[in-house]
Design goal:
Blueprint (H helix, E strand, L loop, with lengths): L10 E7 L20 E3 L4 H6 L3 E2 L13 E4 L6 E2 L2 E2 L7 E9 L6 E10 L11 E2 L2 E2 L12 E2 L9 E6 L5 E6 L27 E10 L5 E10 L2
Parallel strand pairs: 10-15
Antiparallel strand pairs: 1-2, 1-8, 3-6, 4-7, 5-6, 7-8, 9-11, 12-13, 12-14, 14-15
């Protein structure tokens, strides 16, 4: 099984049980299954983390007719049409049956989806705070750079910046160094005019973020702005 998931989330792996070619000799053997199990390696982390899905048709052997019918044997949630989404599905083994009744070779495939929560988590890169920047229009180091603050292992964050008198000059949630970044422009709520360029000087930052396991981390320090 190949897992790509965060700690505490769900991952799925799949196995299938096809009937051998010899079973094609008669339609009366439609309900029989071969006794061996052939593992299918499946990457599933994106399903758990972002709510995307696995198309069960993609787990069938190459060349399998598309005229068959899927059955949700365990009546588990997260299954629609041909797709299975493991998000918030309880740990367990779930079976989906694909039945082909037409054509020269009627057959059955069973796809067994094992939902687990014991996969190794992705590494979460360290937050690196660059405490000096030069918003002078030369295209280099134009904003306050907080590396890795927006990784998925940090679901939320908040950044506040104060001048030397303790006045809030900038604040935002979900800082991402792109659409939400401090460029030396006042965006505070009070006393400092919004959209005004802040002068060169020393400022003070407070950064807070949450982790995927629910912890809250706080960092603070000095920030140097030079024009």
């Amino acid at each position: 099984m190949y897992c790509l998931a965060r700690a505490g989330r769900r991952a799925v792996a799949a196995t299938f049980l096809p009937n051998p070619p010899s079973m094609c000799q008669t339609k009366n053997l439609l309900s029989m299954l071969l006794s061996f199990c052939c593992a299918i390696e499946t990457k599933v982390g994106d399903i758990v983390m972002s709510g995307t899905t696995i198309d069960l048709n993609s787990l069938l052997p190459a060349g399998t007719p598309t005229s068959g019918t899927w059955t949700n044997d365990d009546n588990v949630g997260g299954f629609t049409g041909t797709e299975f989404n493991a998000w918030q599905i309880p740990v367990g083994l779930y079976t989906f049956t694909y039945t082909i009744v037409n054509g020269p070779c009627p057959r059955i495939y069973q796809i067994k989806m094992s939902v687990t929560d014991d996969c190794e988590p992705f590494a979460c890169d360290e937050v690196i705070i660059h405490n000096a920047f030069t918003p002078n229009g030369d295209g280099t180091n134009e904003s306050f750079n907080i590396e890795n603050i927006d990784q998925e292992c940090r679901p939320t964050n908040k950044v506040e910046i104060f001048n030397r008198w303790g006045v809030l000059v900038y604040e935002t949630n979900n800082y991402d160094n792109n659409t939400r970044k401090f460029e030396g422009i006042s965006e505070g709520r009070v006393t400092v005019d919004k959209n005004a360029e802040l002068p060169s000087g020393t400022y003070f930052y407070i950064i807070q973020w949450t982790t995927s396991d629910g912890k809250t981390i706080n960092k603070n320090g000095y920030l140097y702005l030079t024009r």
